[in-house]
Amino acid sequence: MEKAICTIFWKDNAVVMIDQRALPIAERYVTCTDYREVIAAINDLTIRGAPAIGVAAAMGIALGALRIEADAPETFRIAFEELCRQFAATRPTARNLFWAIERMKRRFDSLLVSLPDHDPWHHLRKALVTEAIRICEEDIAINRRLGANGRDLIPDGARILTHCNAGALATAGYGTALGVIRAAYEEGRKIHVYIDETRPVLQGARLTAWELMREKIPCTLITDSMAGFLMQQGKIDLIIVGADRIAANGDTANKIGTYALAVLARAHGIPFYIAAPLSTIDPALSDGSAIVIEERSPKEVSRIGEVRTAPEGIAVYNPAFDWTPHDLITAIITEAGILRPPYAEAIKNIWPSGAR
Predict the structure, then answer these.
(1) b/e string for 290-300 if b means 16 or more Cβ within 10 A?
(2) Which residue in 100, 106, 236, 303 has a CA-CA distance of 20 to 30 Å to 220?
(3) Is residue 121 part of a domain?
């Protein structure tokens, strides 16, 4: 296999990330030396995917903390909380973003109560950088456990449909839905992956196809509107996708188009799996109707790249996500195991171990 994809990492007091806007044409990296550059990268999809956004936020907060000038704990706290507020304002649907911010806040609070007398701010900044790097490293390890937990759901010879990109590029490395697929392939199973192109930003065509071809995992690209026909023809054995937020009852937000696939899967008797770390679960939300759905620029729909494909001035509706009711989900694959209905009970039982 090719060298592992390194989506984001910390180097020389800077945040380095692969520029996902350039793929698959070019593999290039962006180096952020200012936290505002990390915020811009999250907003413009230089980095995307819920777990990767969480890692980026943690590293961006640590990067911003390196520049905080303070002469008292309260001064540092005010500046730190403003950093967290700015990152929280980037993308509203991804639970992992807020989970990472909350974790950095908890670490900050624990550090404030035990600052050394000598050079306390250096100690505080260094510890926040260490926490951000730890979040990144843990994410890769979590994805590998998640993949190992889910691989037995993929039989030898399986024809798999996936939507958007839930691979290494959507995480710090390895992936969630693609992590399960990778784990099955690494174990020697013969599989074939059908990739929805995933309009309007084409994360499937640009990113998932690039990842799978790079690792020589057999795959075929289709348009989103072809998925139902493939199911009707008996060419899909299972569907596996990632998640951006999971409510307490198992309702799951993911890239727009996921709900339609779940409905089609139910109509054709096809298993529909979600793969996501526990940090994607939001037990504070009772169901999917409470999930905030991000709306993005109309240009993503009316153009492909810089080429306009719709009449000038046409009204555009562009929700980036939809949510799938829990009763359409066969199982939720996590690093702690496979959750099955009733999800409210399964999530309640597993959450104390997941509130990292």
Answers:
(1) ebebbebeeeb
(2) 303
(3) yes
